[in-house]
Amino acid sequence: MPRITVGRVVGTLVCLSVLFLNYRLDFGRASQESAVDDLAGRGPRVGEHFADFDLEEVGGGRVTSADLLGKPTVLVFARSLDWCPFTKSFVTELAASIGRQPEVNVLLVFAPNQVNTKAIRFLFDRGIAFRVALDQGRQLIERLGIANVTIRSRIETGVPYPAVFVLDAQGIVRFRDTRRNHRIWLAGSRIKEELDRLG
Q1: Contact 163/39 with Cβ under 8 angstroms?
Q2: What is the pTM (predicted TM-score) of this model?
Q3: Side-by-side strand order, sheet with 163-167
């Protein structure tokens, strides 16, 4: 086979491999503007106070529900910033949508076995300054009824169903989104819109 033909064949195969990989990575991943409440009836409803909590904060110290009063708060219960591409996409989109707003609290809550150096590095490398808390024993996740009971692999142990709660400055739930399907997440622009409604 002439050398130029071999080069073309190899080049074509490389391009096809890259396209296939991009297709596999993006397949079934998307954000949507409309809210979903697959776990309706679990956790506080819109208009109710969010449950009191006291969680370990990554970096030291603790964060409580009382600490967040006085500002609107976005509480995000997520799978993992280590291995879950859907969580990574959602958090990146949320950061791009709301940016750094000192007048807004954003707290990411994870099961403790889902936070490691790689997960924290993900946030640091992208300049995302959200606070991160560990729900030791998954006590809050269990109390809210958002524990994922359809674990498919050992790496998913302890993860909650994805959930977003937007609270006003008094700690009252003004918006909620809970999902069984982690592959489609709430658009960051929708969360920004809910925050803007709170003034």
Answers
A1: yes
A2: 0.85
A3: 62-64, 54-57, 131-134, 105-110, 73-77, 163-167, 173-178
